[in-house]
Amino acid sequence: MNDKRQQRGSKKRRVARDAAGTEYQLTGKLGEGGQGVVCTTDRENILIKLFTDKDPDRRRRWVNRLNWVLNQELDGLHIARPIALIERPPGYVMELMDGLEPLQTGLERSLAALIDGDGLAGYLATGGLRRRLALLRELAATLAGLHARGLAYGDLSPNNVFVSQSIEHCQIWLIDCDNLCATERLGNGHLHTPGFGAPEVVRGERGVNSLTDAWSFAVLAFELLTHGHPLKGEAVLDAEPEEEERALRGELPWVHHPEDTSNQACDGLPLELVATPRLRALFEDCFNAGRDDPLARPSLAEWADALEAAWALMLDCTAPDCGSSFYWNDDRRCPFCDEVTTDGLLLMHGWESDETADERFLETGDCVALAADTPLVLHLAPAGTRGYRDAPRVCELWLENGELHMEPAQHAELTLVRCSDGQVYAFTQKKSLKSHQRRGLSLALTLCHTDAPQLRPFWRFTW
Amino acid sequence: MPIKDFAVKAARPLPVIILADTSGSMGMDGKIEALNQSLRDMVKSFAAESRLRGEIHLGVITFGGSAAAHLPLTPAHQVQGIQEFVANGGTPMGAAMDIARELVEDRELIPSRAYRPILVLVSDGHPTDDWEGPFRTLLASERAAKATRIALAIGNDADEAMLTEFANDPEAPLFHADNAAEIVRFFRAVTMSVAKHSQSANPSASLRLDYRRVGDDDELDLDF
Fold first, then answer.
1. What is the ipTM of this complex?
2. What is the pLDDT of residues A112-165, one digit of tens each?
3. Parallel, antiparallel, or unpaired for β A161-164 and A172-174?
4. Residue A75: alpha-carbon gap to chain centroid
């Protein structure tokens, strides 16, 4: 490094100073985009984004927008917001916790493994399907929260989403909040990351807004799950590069179009392996009708709900060499290695009501899979809604050596109901169902919490 | 049972072809050493570049004494190091042009899905073989005509007329290097521009060479 700098005779400085006079020694480059660079500094958890475009007009507009962003209410959202401004070159200081990396890094690792013949090793090393769903759920919830405040993010891409380096964790943080905008942005061109821009933005007809965010999110979700691109099918990938530009402008059907197969998917993981029917329906709405009609695209709130519901269906393959996570199926067969997983239980959600005697149980269709040796916390709200994990916890369940253990939380009462004859058994202490009692009976576990005694969700399962 | 595998297509290739003068005169004033250093740096940078949007393929043709494909067109992340150039002999640029044309027009090596090639010609002298014919044929060939062509004239003895005609970037007609350090700097600019280009919205458009000035007081040093 020093040699090179001497060689170039560079006398440039590496210290940035904010408006309050605080100095930051720049220590490395974390990311680089069309308009600027993000640098690490000598201060813990402090990053600096610098605007490197030298055009005076664009600089002024960028600084103006930044000042506007500084005044937006972003508390409670996982967005690394500006905490101080840098004057020369224009930039800002932001705080980002340790142990994060761009989502792009993991995507590249996973894709490189597939290309280089290591199969799904990279997919699994970056957390497999279970973690992908969790990351996307967190991202969708953050964007939904932003949209609920009347703001749009603007330039969503795997470079701007930072995620936990450790696959044990599923934190996400958005950086580059200088692209935030209130309404459609007209004057600043049509900033987007290649491949992630909505067709009307790529064509230069519209600026970015919450509906273009919805498009970019769906592309990112599709890519993270399948390693394919929703608009790059057979007709695009083998053709000349110009064909790809047409596809990104929205002139070709999406790769899973139900009737028009002229641009069929030809690479990546099959969508039905990595997306539930509900998620597939959202992709279809976004990329088919939503390709030309931005209003047809599912909202980020819909994505967050569907991802939560999908995540609740994860089982972990117990085959020694596999390690995949997959969606519940009745055979508990892992679609990645075809081995049958040792144990698992599907819980089906419903509400209990005294109102109508002949319809005491009303099933909602929401389900949660209980994987062997992975404890599951049941909350008062049904899975598949974003409020699920904020609702009070009622009990913890786990499957171990063929036994089902049920432990009520404080202030909770559980009732086990035999569905065939309505016989009940209430308990407030840990209770277990033994493996020899497993006879294919339909049972329902009714939850009750003193905080909300009128709510009585139940989870039906077969034992 | 083994875990299933799934096919994914590698990103589109972005061919970068260097035509390097390795004639005897390059042996003076550390020019060939600078060229060697530049190529090593370039390979290292390209290999580290993301392969999500475009896969940089690098090929090197040398002309010094005789013309030869020094490095066949290879995905940058697979290049195992480049043999050092040795300055020697005359400047058979015409023969190098023939090799370049054959390479660029080879539909197996460069499939139709590839991005437009980038040709970089570096020379410090006048061609010593019959170059006019091969030069015209190259420039007229379908793919070389569409390619981004960049030229660097080293020192005062370079054939500037010819290099200027080779270059087709309207914003950057011909680059000059007066010493070894400037050769390194030129290649750094090419490397950075190609890397940026491979990630850009439109890698099939022609490349824009970002030849940044050194010593801009307003700027922080961001070349980590």
1. 0.79
2. 899 888 889 999 999 999 999 999 999 999 999 999 998 999 889 998 999 999
3. antiparallel
4. 20
Q: Residues A410, A431: contact at Cβ < 8 Å? A: no
B220/A12 Cβ within 8 A: yes
Of B50, B214, B218, the CB nearest to A10: B214
- CB neighbour burial string for A277-289, b if at least 16 within 10 angstroms, e if fewer: eebeebbbbbbbe
Q: Are A52 and A40 in contact (CB under 8 A)?
A: no
Which CATH number belongs to the domain containing residue A22 in this structure? 3.30.200.20
pTM for the predicted model, two decimal places: 0.88
Rounded to the nearest angstrom, the minimum Cα separation between A5 and chain B is: 9
Cβ pair B18, B122 in contact under 8 A:
yes
End-to-end CA distance of chain A: 65
Domain that holds residue A140: 119-311
SS3 A445: strand
B71-83 pLDDT, tens digit per residue, is 999 999 999 888 9
Cβ A428 vs Cβ A408: under 8 Å: yes
d(CA A114, CA A120): 6
A-chain CB neighbours of B4 within 8 Å are 119-120, 335-337
Residues A228 and A290 grouped into a single domain: yes
Both tokens of residue A295? 């209003």
A362 lies in the same domain as A303: no
Number of neighbouring beta carbons within 10 Å of residue B108: 5
The residue written with tokens 């077969």 in the block is A462
Residue A319 located in a structural domain: no
Rg (CA), chain B: 18
The predicted structure's pLDDT at residue A5: 41
Q: Which residues contact residue A168 at a Cβ distance below 8 angstroms, ignoring those fewer than 6 apart? A: none
Across the interface, whether the CB atoms of B113 and A338 are under 8 A apart is answered: no
Is A114 in contact with B204 (Cβ distance < 8 A)?
A: no
